Amino acid sequence: MIILFNIAIVGLVLLIAYWWSNEGLFSSLLHLVCVIIAGAIAFSLWEPITMSMMSGGWFDNYAWGIVLIGVFAITLLGLRIASDKLIPANLYFPQWVNTAFGGISGAAAGVLTIGICLIGSGFVQSTNEIMSYQGTGRDENARAEIKQIGDPIWLDVAKLTSNFFSTLSVGTLYPDVSKSPLLQYNPRLDELSTLVRDTFEGGMGQLSLAPDAAKVTKVASSPEGMTVVQVTFNVKAKDFGGQLILGSSQIRLIGEADGNKIPDILYPIAWKQEIKEGGELLFKFDDISHYATSVPGRAETGFKFAFDTRRNPDFTPKFIQIRGTRFDLPMDDITVLSTLAVREYRGQPLSDEEIIANRDPLGKDIQHLIEPSSRIRKLRISTNGLPGSIEVNEKMYFLQGTLTTLWRRDGVSSTLSIKGIHADEGTAIVQLDVSQGTNAAFEDLLPIISPDSAVVFIDDDGRKYEPIGFYIDDGKKMQLTLTPSTPIRNISELPMHLLTSSKKKGLTLIFQITEGVRLREFRVGDYTIGTCNVLAERNKR
User: Fold this and answer.
1) What's the first-to-final CA gap in the chain, in angstroms?
2) Among 82, 162, 464, 502, which one has the highest count of C-beta atoms within 10 angstroms of its own C-beta?
3) Residue 77: its pLDDT value, please?
4) Where in the sequence of the chain do the CATH 2.60.40 domains occur?
5) Under a CB-based contact definition with an 8 Å cutoff, are residues 247 and 285 in contact?
6) What is the pLDDT of residues 184-209, one digit of tens each?
7) Alpha-carbon distance values, 375 to 425, 466, 516 (Å)
8) Is 213 helix (H, G, I), strand (E, B) or coil?
9) Could you give the CA distance from residue 47 to residue 53 in angstroms, rounded to a whole number?
């Protein structure tokens, strides 16, 4: 089918070229000028007219395409009628000139005409393919990377048309009325026209979004290479099935324009959302089956979309496009995420807003700080001489209680040595290092969060797990507190003074996790401290 599509595109362009070569060079040039002017007018009026027509109804999924092609067709018809009336006579050139150069200008008009029609058809609700042609989309073989799907077409009229009018939009035909040149406000329009169709179930999802269906509520960025945009959607954003479903291909973060250069375009690599069971979880757009989906029955849905800016440290976001609709960013209230927050906290007081602003809303990577094992690595002690404050079972595992001991003692028999921390049947012990300076530390939040804030691990299904204990490491001694029968409910039950003390001591939290689940997030109160991908396994060494 793709071969037939290529033949159809090339055949139509050649047919138009042949027609105008027979009409002569002057008529062909006149028509080309009319096509260029009609195209410029269509792209200039396209967005404001479409925005005024969209209301959240079924027609929204056809509005983008119908308006673009409709305005272009009507304007071209008007210009042709006017030109024929104003210039009724023709200029005569030698036949070879009419045939050769008339055919060239006719082919140019054909490329632009077919290009506009192809771009417009991409914005009409249908499948994500046209005669096996998909264009730009998510590659299922490359972790949903946004790229050209399949072989490029022989004559890419959509790309040629987009590039041509984008160049004119910042030059000769700059739109003085809307002051939103195509190059800067709808860059790479040919790609956008196929990306919006890359929805669930092969294009059955909606490809439009009413301008009042969403609002950007927060923007955060960090010098380490992360920009997070928080968007709230209302009921008008929902798909046909009553649930909002968004793929990474339908979301573009556009950077600040630099003259005639195409602005940077970023697609989200992950998103964070509320789940039905309560709380929020982080998900990645690393598969074509992964979509940001709203919780059924909710009137409003909030998503935090994460964009990777490491390849361009100077990237400055200007606006976000969701299903083609542009939403301005609250740049006057942009949050700057910085790793200096903790150091500044000790050096000078920070306001609540500054402390929150310096937290990464998606959390840091804490994978390397997690030990899914019941064994305490540094501990080498015997059960002989243990105080009555700590209980040990017959297999030499700690059950519960408190203990202060040297990390290592000489002459410990292997048969009497402590093996680690007991895990109930069907559970596994997971340890997390939250010491000062680590990615899992949260001392900067202590001045602003409630002492009743919970400290929890969250798994794939949104289930929460509270610590059953902790141990302190001062280099020589270990101070263990183990209370599996009464898990630690909030931060007031932890020795938080260790995290703000000038004398650094290690602090490791102990969790008892359902065996076989996969941990995804560590959270304190409403704040995500870190994210991970750790399988809770029993007795891992």
Assistant:
1) 56
2) 162
3) 96
4) 209-336
5) yes
6) 999 999 999 999 988 887 777 888 99
7) 16, 19, 18
8) coil
9) 10
What are 79's two structure tokens? 């210009």
Instruction: Reduce the DSSP state of residue 71 to 3 states and report it.
Output: helix
Cβ(271)–Cβ(285) under 8 Å? yes
Q: What angle do CA 185, 187, 189 make, to 5 degrees?
A: 115
- CA dihedral sign, ordered 355, 361, 365, 369: positive
| CA distance linking residue 108 with residue 350, whole number of Å | 62
Could you give phi then psi for residue 135, rounded to 5 degrees? 80, -135
Task: Please give the mean pLDDT across all residues of the chain.
Answer: 85
How does DSSP classify residue 112? H
Give the tokens for residue 122: 């991409």
Determine what percent of the chain falls in helix, strand and coil, rounding each to the nearest 5.
30, 25, 40
Q: For 170-269, where are the alpha helices, taking DSSP H only?
A: 182-185, 189-195, 200-203
- Is the pLDDT score of 337 beyond 50? no
User: Nearest Cα to 2, choosing from 140, 119, 153?
Assistant: 153
CB 284 within 8 A of CB 268: no
The pLDDT value recorded for residue 270 is: 87
Task: Give the Cα separation of 361 and 221 in Å (integer).
Answer: 10
Whether residue 166 contacts residue 180, with contact meaning beta carbons closer than 8 Å, is answered with no
Name the E strands within 329-440.
335-336, 364-365, 370-371, 390-392, 397-406, 420-421, 427-433
Q: Which residue has the higher pLDDT, 137 or 259?
A: 137
Q: Give yes or no for a contact between 81 and 7, defined as CB atoms under 8 angstroms apart.
A: no
Q: Which amino acid is at 183?
A: L
Selection from 248, 237, 246, 250 nearest residue 298 by Cα = 237
What does the pLDDT average to over 282-303?
83
The predicted pLDDT at position 501 comes to: 62
pLDDT reading at 343 higher than 70: no
Please give the average per-residue pLDDT across 388-399, as a whole number: 93
Tens-digit pLDDT profile for residues 428-468: 999 999 998 888 988 878 777 788 889 999 998 889 999 99
Closest CA to 214 of 229, 202, 227: 229
How far apart, in whole angstroms, are the C-alpha atoms of residue 313 and residue 224? 8
Task: State the pLDDT at residue 283.
Answer: 84
Amino acid at 486: T
| Contact by Cβ (8 Å): 479, 472 | yes
**In sequence order, which residues have a C-beta less than 8 Å from that of residue 271 and are 6 or more positions away?**
282, 283, 285, 292, 303, 304, 305, 306
CATH code assigned to 209-336: 2.60.40
Position 331 scores a pLDDT of 64
Rounded CA-CA distance 277/156 in Å is: 47
Q: Which pair of tokens denotes residue 291?
A: 């979509």
**What is d(CA 279, CA 459) in angstroms, rounded to the nearest whole number?**
11
pTM for this model (two decimals): 0.62
